[in-house]
């Protein structure tokens, strides 16, 4: 009889764990202004074209005429002028800190700061961090975000990025 009570306790624990896991998944999927600022910053420093999906309509434009395309062309040209490939310009970011300076239902101003290091390959970044190789540089910026179609988007001139790059 005591064994039956013990089994029902385990069943309740498993059911509670499953319910909590589902709740955590839904909570993690909710987009926030701070999360968008961090995701944009990661894509920006890694020179990932996905940064365009975090940008508002005025900066996104079409693929060939967007601020992202102009920035990536400028970085690639600068790297080639120095004798490097675009991969040598990629940076991984660490120790990212954010501070929400202002936020309402439709706009937010987020201050982002952290450290970045050259990231030719993700394994290189891990080894460099592990053994303290390479230089680490500080970065910081103010990101203006607005809500477009129910999603937070980065606007303004994030990290100096504009159509005139």
Q: Give the strand order, joined by hyphens, for the main sheet.
A: 1-2-3-4
Poorly predicted regions are: none
Q: What is the count of β-strands? A: 4
- Indicate the radius of gyration in whole angstroms: 21 Å
CATH classification class of the largest domain = Alpha Beta
| Strand residue percentage | 25-35%
Largest sheet: 4 strands, antiparallel
Please tell me the overall pLDDT.
84
Q: What's the number of helices?
A: 5
- The total number of structural domains is 2
Helix content: 40-55%
Choose one word for the global shape. Answer: extended
Judged by helices, strands and strand pairing, the structural class is alpha+beta
CATH topology of the largest domain: Nuclear Transport Factor 2, Chain: A
The end-to-end span amounts to 75 Å
Q: Which H/E pattern describes the elements?
A: HHHHEEHEE
In the CATH hierarchy, the architecture of the largest domain is Roll
Features:
165 residues, Nuclear Transport Factor 2, Chain: A, 2 domains, four-stranded antiparallel sheet, 5 helices, 4 strands
List the helices and strands and how they pair.
Layout: H1 2-29, H2 33-45, H3 57-60, H4 67-81, E1 91-103, E2 107-118, H5 122-131, E3 137-148, E4 151-155
């Amino acid at each position: 009889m005591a064994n039956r009570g013990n089994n029902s306790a385990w069943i309740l624990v498993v059911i509670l764990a499953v319910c909590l896991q589902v709740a955590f998944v839904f909570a993690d999927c909710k987009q926030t202004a701070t999360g968008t600022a961090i995701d944009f910053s990661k894509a920006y420093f890694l020179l990932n074209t996905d940064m365009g999906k975090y940008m508002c309509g005025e900066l996104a434009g079409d693929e060939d005429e967007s601020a992202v395309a102009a920035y990536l062309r400028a970085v690639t040209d600068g790297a080639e002028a120095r004798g490097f490939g675009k991969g040598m310009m990629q940076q991984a970011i660490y120790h990212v800190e954010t501070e929400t300076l202002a936020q309402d239902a439709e706009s937010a101003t987020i201050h982002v700061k952290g450290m970045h290091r050259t990231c030719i390959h993700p394994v290189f970044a891990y080894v460099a961090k592990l053994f303290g190789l390479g230089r680490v540089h500080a970065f910081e910026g103010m990101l203006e975000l607005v809500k477009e179609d129910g999603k937070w988007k980065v606007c303004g001139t994030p990290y100096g990025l504009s159509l005139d790059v």
